């Protein structure tokens, strides 16, 4: 009898340990990917001074665009809440898209090696950021499943683990984008 | 790349003279095959007669000559067609490849090295026998490519209760092995394999896959159609998704549907590797059908096109990232 209780107790304890470790592992995965995503977004911000200095000479008539980019960049250096940061990143995505469309109107600019290289770097960063967002969403879905499904939800409740929110595309970016020929992927 | 219609024109104007000459040689090979079959049949009949006259000799008298006949046939058969096969490859297939794309080169005796095959991480089982031939190498657009036919096997030996050892050969992979320069930079590795566990067991299969069994981390992707057909393992969750963009996943699904064969893909060391399993020989000369028939020769052209189209199917010539 005692041995039976001991075995059952052992199995339950083992299950609790496995569930606990799985939950913590999944939460750490979410944090880890969020960290990488943040680093990639930072890389994109760091590219802006370079971008502005390279193309400014060619694009005398596009002052508004540069002012916008510079203003966004200086705002990015101020402390802010995560939701404000997400908003700012979305603003940058929009401004960069506008920048790319504008470049199409300057044949000299399109032919410049520097600009081409910058555009390639931007494309690469955008693709990496999108990959990081998808990875983040996959990790969050995994974590949320563990937090909300039986029986790990009991343990998650006891440990006060909350479901995380997925990355959503802002309404403005859901509209069909203006496609420039340089960016057909 | 040339179209089938262009190839028909080329077949009629350029290939027919050499094919006519080779057709004569093919008929001679076929004839010697006939003689060989007749001799082997004769041996078997004589053995049968001996058995009929002396039933005491037992079945060994028929089995032994039959086994010898099969072995002799297997050795002599390829020898009889060797010259024809060599000429067909160097004089016909080389021309077809050059016509298809002048920047491609056909080397019948070369292969992708075993070390490259292992580096691809597609088939971790180390082969005991590695055979490869018919290498096509060159550039398609901006992309450097190499592909060839490969057959890899491992062996198992077992000892029966009489103490005899039996060696058995098992195929690991047989088919087209393709290597190309990938259009994005990456540091780790990502392997895309046909998904048998999830197709059989559903969610439970996915749970089984998470144990990886000697592979890297399981990467769960966000394209349900792709997820149903493939399982992905990679060294980095983000990098694998950077490589497998939603557009590329869709292209891989279409690539599989177009060929309807099991497809393995991997992204390692700045290259993409594609292994398409086949249960027939590619680029081997035909002996039992006339090579003057366009449909016979067309098969080589189609095999070549399907291999070269991987570049287009995976969009490898799009160079909008920092890698040029």
Describe the protein.
The complex is a heterodimer of chains A (185) and B (324). With 185 residues, chain A is mainly alpha-helical. Chain A has one domain: de novo design (two linked rop proteins) (Up-down Bundle), CATH 1.20.1440. Chain A is 77% helix and 0% strand. Chain A starts with a helix and ends in an 11-residue tail after the last helix. The C terminus of chain A is likely disordered. Chain B has 324 residues and is of the alpha+beta class. Helices cover 48% and strands 24% of the residues of chain B. Chain B is built from nine helices and nine strands. In chain B, strands 1-2-3-4-9-8-5-7-6 form a nine-stranded antiparallel beta sheet. The longest helix of chain B has 50 residues. The radius of gyration of chain B is 24 Å and the shape is flat. The relative contact order of chain B is 0.14. The model of chain B has no long low-confidence stretch (mean pLDDT 87). Classes of the chains: A mainly alpha (185), B alpha+beta (324).
Q: If you average the pLDDT of chain A, what whole number results?
A: 81
Strand content of chain B: 15-25%
Strand content of chain A: under 5%
Tally of discrete structural domains of chain A: 1
Extract low-pLDDT stretches of chain B: none
The CATH architecture assignment of chain A turns out to be Up-down Bundle
The end-to-end span of chain A amounts to 67 Å
Bin the helical content of chain A: over 70%
Short descriptors:
heterodimer, A: 185 residues, mainly alpha, de novo design (two linked rop proteins), 7 helices, 77% helix, disordered C terminus, B: 324 residues, alpha+beta, nine-stranded antiparallel beta sheet
């Amino acid at each position: 009898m005692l041995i039976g209780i001991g075995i059952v107790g052992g199995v339950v304890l083992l299950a609790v340990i496995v569930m606990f470790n799985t939950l913590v592992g999944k939460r750490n995965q979410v944090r880890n990917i969020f960290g990488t995503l943040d680093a990639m977004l930072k890389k994109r911000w760091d590219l802006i001074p370079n971008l502005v200095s390279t193309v400014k000479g060619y694009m005398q008539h596009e002052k508004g665009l540069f002012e916008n980019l510079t203003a966004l960049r200086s705002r990015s250096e101020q402390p802010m809440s995560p939701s404000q940061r997400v908003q700012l990143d979305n603003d940058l995505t929009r401004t960069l898209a506008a920048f790319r469309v504008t470049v199409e109107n300057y044949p000299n600019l399109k032919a410049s090696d520097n600009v081409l290289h910058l555009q390639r770097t931007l494309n690469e960063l955008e693709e990496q950021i999108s990959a990081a967002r998808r990875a983040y969403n996959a990790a969050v879905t995994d974590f949320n499943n563990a937090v909300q499904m039986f029986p790990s939800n009991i343990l998650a409740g006891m440990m006060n683990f909350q479901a995380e929110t997925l990355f959503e595309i802002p309404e403005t970016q859901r509209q069909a984008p203006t496609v420039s020929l340089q960016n057909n992927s | 790349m040339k179209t089938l219609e262009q190839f028909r024109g080329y077949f009629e104007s350029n290939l027919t003279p050499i094919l006519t000459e080779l057709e004569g040689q093919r008929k001679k090979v076929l004839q010697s095959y006939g003689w060989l079959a007749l001799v082997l049949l004769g041996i078997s009949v004589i053995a049968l007669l001996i058995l009929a006259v002396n039933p005491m000799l037992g079945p060994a008298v028929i089995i032994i000559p039959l086994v010898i006949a099969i072995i002799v046939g297997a050795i002599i058969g390829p020898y009889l067609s060797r010259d024809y096969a060599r000429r067909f490859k160097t004089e016909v297939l080389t021309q077809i490849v050059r016509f298809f794309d002048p920047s491609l080169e056909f080397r019948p005796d070369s292969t992708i090295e075993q070390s490259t095959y292992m580096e691809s991480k597609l088939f971790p089982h180390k082969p005991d026998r590695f055979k490869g031939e018919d290498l096509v190498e060159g550039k398609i657009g901006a992309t450097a490519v190499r592909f060839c036919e490969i057959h890899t096997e491992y062996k198992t030996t077992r000892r029966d209760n009489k103490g005899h050892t039996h060696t058995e050969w098992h195929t690991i992979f047989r088919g087209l092995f393709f290597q190309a320069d990938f259009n994005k930079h990456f540091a780790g590795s990502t392997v895309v394999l046909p998904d048998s566990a999830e197709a059989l067991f559903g969610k439970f299969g996915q749970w089984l896959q998470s144990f990886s069994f000697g592979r890297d981390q399981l990467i769960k992707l966000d394209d349900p159609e792709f997820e149903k057909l493939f399982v992905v393992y990679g060294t980095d969750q983000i990098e694998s998704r950077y490589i497998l963009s939603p557009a590329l996943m869709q292209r891989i699904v279409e690539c599989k549907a177009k060929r309807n064969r099991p497809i393995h893909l991997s992204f390692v060391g700045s290259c993409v590797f594609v292994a398409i399993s086949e249960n027939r020989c590619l680029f081997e000369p035909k002996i039992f059908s006339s090579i003057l028939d366009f449909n016979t020769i067309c098969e080589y052209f189609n095999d070549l096109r399907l291999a070269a189209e991987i570049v287009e199917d995976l969009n490898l010539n799009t160079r909008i990232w920092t890698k040029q």
